[in-house]
Amino acid sequence: MQQLSLWEKCLDTLQDEFSAQQFNTWIRPLQIEDAPGSLRLLAPNQFVLDWVKEHFLDHITQAVEQHADEHLHATEVTFGIGSKNGTPETIEKKSVASSPSPLPSAGVFQSTANETPKSHAVYNSRLNPNFTFETFVEGKSNQLALAAAQQVVENPGASYNPFFLHGGVGLGKTHLMHAVGNAVLAAKPTARVLYLHSERFVADMIKALQTNTIQEFKAYYRGVDLLMIDDVQFFAGKERSQEEFFHTFNALHEAQQQVILTSDRYPKDITGLEERLRSRLGWGLTVAVEPPELETRVAILMTKAEQMGVNLPNAEAFFIAKHIRSNVRELEGALRRVSANAQFTGREITSDLVRESLKDLLAIQERLVSIDNIQKTVAEYYKVKISDLLSKRRNRSITRPRQMAMHIAKELTEHSLPEIGNAFGGRDHTTVLHACRQIKQLKESDRSIEEDYENLSRLLST
Amino acid sequence: MPLEQQLPLPIRLRDDAVFSNFFPGEANQATYQAVQAAAQGTGERFVYLSGPVHSGRTHLLQAACHSVQEQGGTAIYLPFAEHETLTPAWLQDLSGFSLVCIDDVEAMTGKADWEEALFHLYNQLQAAASQLIISSNVPPAQLAIKLADLQSRLTAGLVLMLNPLPDEDKLAALQLRAKARGLYISPTVGAFLLRRVSRDMRALFAVLDTLDNASLAAKRKLTVPFVKEVLSL
Predict the structure, then answer these.
(1) Partner-chain residue, chosen from B1, B129, B149, that has the shortest CB–CB distance to A231
(2) How much is the pLDDT for A380?
(3) Is the peptide bond before A162 cis (omega within 30 degrees of 0)?
């Protein structure tokens, strides 16, 4: 390609005109695109584009004029935004940022759209090969989701379609989704499997609208055997994307192609989604992934440590799991920290090293599970005053929050019942006991109480 | 070069912000090595650097950028605290870079558009196997982030702490920086500076600039009387 060799010559010239830093930051990331009669440069985003035009345009044009020969009719330089796959830059990048599983960079859809419409679209699953069923740690909290995911692999498109996973952040929804994709691919390597974040779908659609390739966009997404979209709550408020997704969904569903979706909440609770889409999301099987309990957290730590080749003693795993309870991501982060500290100081993982490495996290936990904090959080949650919680008032609107706060204080702190009673306006320990029983009972019979309890526990442990 | 002067500070890397010019002391040895490993592509792909102001976060972030560029990669340094010139659009599709460094991330927390842009950037860089280093004055769990998805991702990375150096290490750090300029600071002069000027590294390095220029101009070595004279102490 003439333009390519021309641009390479220009790069040589420009490299001498600027500091290495400027050159590497601004000029090197530019990619060239085929354009008749001109040299078209693509910047990764609007910001880089503006910057380059403002600061380097003259130099670039001069360099182009200097190197353009008679074979090239025009020496006009034009600019755009975008990126292409397999450019020297992405290849180079891999040598620097070596990772066990380099995934292809963005722009997959675009590169296929650039081909002639009838050519066979290349599907790149964008799956993380490390997220498999084998590396997924099972526990009570995710049993159901795991079993259902395995069912989907057995019978894609048939039994549970769509398969909808919801739950708090960092609990393994994405891992399960990738595990399904990897297993489907392992069973049938030619299967067209596609994983993406909802934002990517939106971005691809906008790009397709801008470049008049919406037909290719549709064909691309409707041609998959397994479509997995993460965090669909980000579709909220984006009407055009919802509509496009709605049609894609219908087409796939009709053709019995499997759809798997995740969200941080139950489909009905996603605000900003059109009703018709929301109801379809609940057509198949909807399963919650809950935060892991202590035993599972320990098992997760041990598994991850083994994968990382780190020698993590049982007692230390237990200590970390006991203190870090909000989600799996935080658990992993804690392990990374401990292991880096051990590696770079050449020490074994001991309880001292763990405490030292996680100083700040432990401090938060201790701060959060004080009775004061529980009272404050509960009062804010129910919109009552802390003084009411401590008062003698006995309206239902006050006693329920008070009982909830006592119950949580018993669950989350190490304080004795008399201490808890004392902290709630000098009440007797039998009052605390009664409160705990009451809430336990209500949690089973009244879904809203159960939700309150879950929300409060989450607030207090993140 | 006149063009370099046109570039506002935020984007430009300081020439002397390199790894060899950073004195970690014992307190920051592990952090120093882990950031270096990350920059060389042998460490974690996402690193979160937490430490108080003037603890050297910016220095390490820029050093990582320098290092990646020396290896032939591309790196971009984005200081969130300089927000007058920044918009969330900056974060769009930076996955072409081998390394993205974000300084003072706390400056943008609580702003929905920034949080979402950062969330997407994180996901894109993960997918593209690019490197991300974020710095802040607090650990990720203490950031006032509204988007829970973002917060949990930030806590999942390798979180490293930068601690303030003890005084004897500050002296060593000062001597290292001086040596790079061909200037010698005796232990006596160093101790005098720490006692009389400031114990904050950034202020100390600024004093070093002043002393370097004065010593060149007067063609004198750094002695306590000369330092007193130059700094009017």
Answers:
(1) B149
(2) 92
(3) yes
